[in-house]
Design goal:
Elements: H1 2-32, E1 48-55, E2 58-67, E3 74-78, E4 102-107, H2 125-138, E5 146-151, H3 153-165, E6 171-175, H4 181-192, H5 198-210, H6 216-231, H7 241-247, H8 252-258, E7 285-291, H9 298-307, E8 310-316, H10 323-326, H11 328-340
Parallel strand pairs: 3-4, 3-5, 5-6, 6-7, 7-8
Antiparallel strand pairs: 1-2, 2-4
Helix pairs in contact: 2-3, 5-6
Length: 341
C-alpha cells in the first residue's frame, strides 16, 4: 500500500513537469514544422473554408480545404469532368506534404461539397473564371505564392483564368488538357477511335448516332476498350477509391452542358473553344503535363509548352489521362521540381 501511495504521489508531483514538457514539445514541433501550424481561427476546421460566390443568379457557397502551410507555394487544384470533385486529387497527400508544398482542394460550383444551383445558365466558362478569382481573393492567394493547377476541364478553366488574371499568379500547371477543342476532337476521331476494335467502334457509333447515351451497353463497351486504356490504365474494378468516389458524384448536367455526352471529343458549350493562338500571352512560368496514352494528344501539349513564354513540358511515358495515378513517380517528381524552382 505504501509503495502504491508513494508511486501515486510521485506521479502527481511530476504531472506539472509532464504537461510543461508536453506544451514545450508542441511549441517546438510547431516551430520546426511550420507546414503543420494551425490557422489563427478560434475554432480549427481542418483547413476547410466555405466561400460565398456572387453569380448572375445570386450568391452561392463553394467548399475549399487547405492542406499544409507554405507562404510562398500554394497550389489551388481545379478538378476535371466538368462536374467531378476534388476527391480524385487525394493522392497528392502522399507526395506534396513531404516537400512542404501547400495545396488547396476546391469543389467548383455544382460539384461535390459545393452548392448545386441546378441552373444550366451558370455552367459557363467566363462565369467559372470569375468564380476562381473570388476564391483566390478569399484565400489570400497572390503573385508571390499562387500556383493554379488545372486537370482536364480544369486545365481549360486554368488557361482561361490565366489569360485574364495572370498578374495575380506565380505559376500555372496545365495537366492533361489540350488548348484547342477542335484539335482534341480530331485526335479522338483520327487516332484514338482507330485504335478500337472495328466492331466495338461500329457499335459505339451506332449508339451515339441514336443519342442513346443512357444505354448501359455504351458504358459496357467504353470501360474496357477506352477508359481502361486512356483514362486510367488499370482494370476499372481496381481504380483507386478516391477516383471511384469522385466519378460516382459526377454532375451529369454540368458535364453534358460543357463537354457533351460523347467521349470522343467535345460537343457541348466548349465545342469550338480554342486558346492555342493566345498561349503566347502567358508570361508566367508554366508547366504542361502530357502522357503517352492520354485522351489528349501529348505532342499538342508539348507544343503548348513551347508556345508560352516560360514553358516546361513534362511527359509521362506510362501514363494516361489520370497519370498522377498510373505514372505517379514521373508525374510528381516533375511537378515538385517545377514548384521548387
Amino acid at each position: 500500500m505504501i509503495k502504491k501511495c508513494s508511486l501515486l504521489l510521485l506521479t502527481l508531483s511530476l504531472s506539472p513537469l509532464f504537461f510543461s514538457c508536453k506544451e514545450t514539445s508542441e511549441k517546438q514541433t510547431a516551430q520546426m514544422n511550420p507546414y503543420f501550424q494551425k490557422s489563427n481561427d478560434s475554432i480549427q476546421t481542418g483547413g476547410i473554408q466555405i466561400i460565398p460566390i456572387e453569380t448572375p443568379k445570386g450568391t452561392f457557397k463553394v467548399w475549399t480545404k487547405r492542406f499544409g502551410n507554405n507562404p510562398t507555394t500554394k497550389v489551388l487544384l481545379l478538378n476535371g469532368g466538368p462536374g467531378a470533385t476534388h476527391e480524385y486529387f487525394e493522392c497528392f497527400e502522399s507526395f506534396l506534404p513531404a516537400e512542404g508544398i501547400e495545396f488547396i482542394y476546391y469543389d467548383q460550383l455544382g460539384c461535390g461539397n459545393s452548392d448545386n444551383p441546378k441552373d444550366v445558365s451558370l455552367w459557363d466558362l467566363p462565369r467559372y473564371v470569375e468564380e476562381v478569382e473570388q476564391v483566390r481573393k478569399s484565400l489570400n492567394l497572390n503573385k508571390d505564392n499562387f500556383y493554379l493547377l488545372g486537370h482536364s476541364w480544369g486545365g481549360i478553366l486554368a488557361m482561361e483564368y490565366t489569360m485574364k488574371y495572370q498578374n495575380n499568379m506565380k505559376g500555372l500547371i496545365i495537366s492533361n488538357m489540350m488548348s484547342d477543342a477542335v484539335a482534341y476532337g480530331k485526335y479522338a476521331d483520327e487516332v484514338l477511335a482507330k485504335q478500337l476494335d472495328p466492331d466495338v467502334l461500329k457499335e459505339l457509333r451506332a449508339i451515339e448516332e441514336k443519342g442513346d447515351f443512357s444505354n448501359p451497353r455504351y458504358m459496357e463497351l467504353l470501360m474496357p476498350n477506352f477508359y481502361e486504356k486512356h483514362i486510367l490504365r488499370m482494370p476499372a474494378k481496381d481504380w483507386p477509391e478516391p477516383v471511384q468516389r469522385s466519378f460516382g458524384k459526377m454532375n451529369q448536367s454540368l458535364y453534358v452542358t460543357m463537354q457533351g455526352p460523347s467521349e470522343f471529343g467535345i460537343s457541348g458549350k466548349l465545342e469550338k473553344w480554342n486558346r492555342q493562338p493566345d498561349l503566347k500571352s502567358i508570361t508566367i512560368p508554366t508547366l504542361v503535363i502530357g502522357a503517352r496514352y492520354d485522351t489528349m494528344d501529348p505532342k499538342h501539349m508539348e507544343q503548348m509548352a513551347k508556345s508560352v513564354k516560360k514553358g516546361t513540358y513534362l511527359f509521362c511515358p506510362k501514363g494516361s489521362h489520370m497519370d498522377f495515378y498510373d505514372d505517379q513517380e514521373v508525374y510528381f517528381k516533375g511537378l515538385i521540381s517545377f514548384l521548387k524552382k
